[in-house]
Amino acid sequence: MIDTIISRALNNQFVLIAEIGVNYYDIAKKLSISPIEAAKLMIREAKNSGIHAVKFQTYKAETLAAKNSPSYWDTSEEATTSQFALFKKFDSFGKDEYAELRQYSEEIGIEFLSTPFDIESADYLYDMMNVYKISSSDLNNIPFVEYMAKKGKPILLSVGASNEDEIERTVDVIRKYNSQPLCLLHCVLEYPTPYEHANLNKIVSLKDKYPDLIIGYSDHTKPDICADVIKTAYNLGAVVVEKHFTLDKTLVGNDHYHAMDSADAKKIIDGISFIDMIRGSYQLSCLESESAARQNARRSLVAACDIQKGSVITRDMITFKRPGGGLSPVYLDDIIGKKAAVDIEDDTILQTDMFV
After folding, report:
1. What is the CA radius of gyration of the chain?
2. The domain containing residue 319 runs over which residues?
3. Is residue 82 very low, low, confident or very high in pLDDT (cuts 50, 70, 90)?
4. % of the chain at pLDDT higher than 70
5. β pairing state of 182-187 and 155-158
6. What is the DSSP letter of 106?
7. Phi and psi (nearest 5°) for 39?
8. CA–CA separation, 297 vs 323, rounded Å?
9. Is 250 inside a domain boundary?
10. Distance (Å, rounded) from C-alpha 156 to C-alpha 53?
11. pTM, whole model, 2 decimals?
């Protein structure tokens, strides 16, 4: 199986996951194709956009939500007011369909995963994925977390709508049974998330508290014109970023209204590449590209007057001027008190062999 998410993250390389979720149903309806064809189309578009992995959501409405479960999203964007009713629209896929999508992802070279929302799907997805994703909504579902942790795969854990003690408890449960790489994804469970609620500094707090874990961000803001939300998250330490993905942001309902499309994804990938380029190295050393400036813009010790051979060098005989090819000013005290080995003209750049 393709292993991109964890291998890149462990090397501190940016990972962008396209959360296709169940958006392919609406794409299928729009294009008059089958849901499986639409899902494959979205996988292909994600791959062509430079995205590193695609993620779906695997659930059945009956095992996910009670029939009277209320909505928690912006109903002006998604009018369905019952969780059960919404999920029921998008739960027709089962093991065979996800196996087909996983195989297609492998064929075109992009990592596949899907978030399981029940034990049955956690079991049948096991052989299809390198990494499990645990939704923020299941962070306190400790029996389910424990069940997946025991399967021994790396885990992506979203920590939206949770307090510090809840995150600690869930991390402790995972670590009790699982020593594989663990990624905590900052997340705000607000659909869409207003920019002023993004709370990206939480990424810094997660990095400080869990220095041995991978830290990421699951984004629910609407794509901004310069991808500043994602770029800021990355600069604050989010290596793995998950964002909903669509082929048409104008589609009404579900997760289209806060999703990125292919153009947004390319903007994110290009923006992060630019950030990586300008970040450079952590080494405290002169760059090779600075060598000419280092040589010519620094100063050397320079004769401030004519100095006769045999003269004892005093401070007033020396000044400092560019370029930097002669004795560095750091050697001023070493030269004072020595004798001139040769006649030295005013404005001469001083060298070591001019003194004894």
Report:
1. 30
2. 295-354
3. confident
4. 100
5. parallel
6. H
7. -65, -40
8. 6
9. yes
10. 13
11. 0.90
